[in-house]
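Field: COMPLEX_INPUT
Field: COMPONENT_COUNT = two
Field: RESIDUE_TOTAL = 454
Field: MODE = joint
Values follow.
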Amino acid sequence: MACESWAAKLDTYLDGELPPEEMRAFDIHVRGCASCAAEALSRVQMRRKIQSAGKRFAPTADFRRRVQGSIASKPQRRFHPAWIFAGALAVVAVLLSTYVGMQRSRREQAYSEIADLHVAALASSSQVDVLSSDRHTVKPWFQGKIPFTFDLPELQNSEFSLLGGRMTYLGQTPGAHLIYTVRKHEISVFIVQEKDLRDSWNIGNVTTKELSFNVASWSQGGLRYFAIGDASAADINGLAKLFKATGS
Amino acid sequence: MQGNKSSTRWFKLVDVSGANLQLDPFEELAMPLFDQLYNFAHWLTQNREEAEDLVQETYAKALKGFSSFQPGTNFRAWMYRILRNTFLTSRTGLKATMTVPLDLEDDGPALAVECETPETILFERANGDLLQSAIDELPVYFREILLLCEVEEMSYQEIAETLSIPAGTVMSRLSRARKMLRDRLRPQLQAGIVTTAATKGSNRGV
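Field: COMPLEX_OUTPUT
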């Protein structure tokens, strides 16, 4: 029969294992030859039945657990102490970098809030609510507005001058916002009660540059101070020093 | 608030990485094959208890020899090869292979197909039980290659790796296995047709 040579390769064709050009030739032949097409159909049906009949035996859940237990326990015993140490070290490293990362993101959050307040105040048409260069006017203005009091530094013989003050909220607690100028640069000083600040604001005594503002932060007498501005770090620190000197 | 939220997220990440340290590469590769390896073992041993012993031993051997497995090569074929070699050296395996004719590979022109036979009609009637017992009765070399091809859907190359035989042998042995299965099913199915026809005929008569 003419289809005999084709039929001999039929199974290999259905397995998809003939060389590519023979596969294509077979495709064409099967479309034209009724008997080979019928035979192919019957074998495909047969395979489906063998496949479902062949999936006959399933392991019990108990047996699976037993084998899994037997292979899982061994590699753990093979753990060398050095690997445990290395693993512990890796965990510590991850924890540490996580902690540092969190601290950094807290600090960035705190700084960006301070920077926002500073910029918002400067951009406002009324930068201050109490406009006075006299510290003896500004200090009493805050009475009854914030739950604490503070001392303003004497500015005589310094380059700084007081512009005024306003009430503010920082980290959801009320505080004082003072604005100073030094050679046309404005510096904001924020003062809040340290005990009301959340952990995220506990950023220690630092002077850094954030968002290209210079920032100094310190705590004194239960109050937390932040000085921020586009003035030089030396100016920010100079103002900070004046504040620190007033308290002591 | 936001700080707290992100901190819990971070600690979750740490937990996950801690769990990853304990994940065993062998277990991860081998356990997904468990059900199919068991099925294959049961077909080979034809007995649940022996199949369980065979699978257990296969996993123990594979774990021990895992360092010799080359990553990137076919892990499934590697596992099946261990299982099969373990079976062939077992008592049941030795007994099964002893009954297989020696001229397994060179048995004349095995591929002749009678195009006249209405197999389409015939094999449509094959039910699961009939097929299962027909597969069960095949010699072990035919049974295993048929199962690897039809049930596990392995390629010829994968089968060759599993059985440690040349790819050309896979093709000829497979076609002989299929032919033997068809030849054994045909008389039973034809008898089935006759019986059903007879029952129908007598029903009509009544």
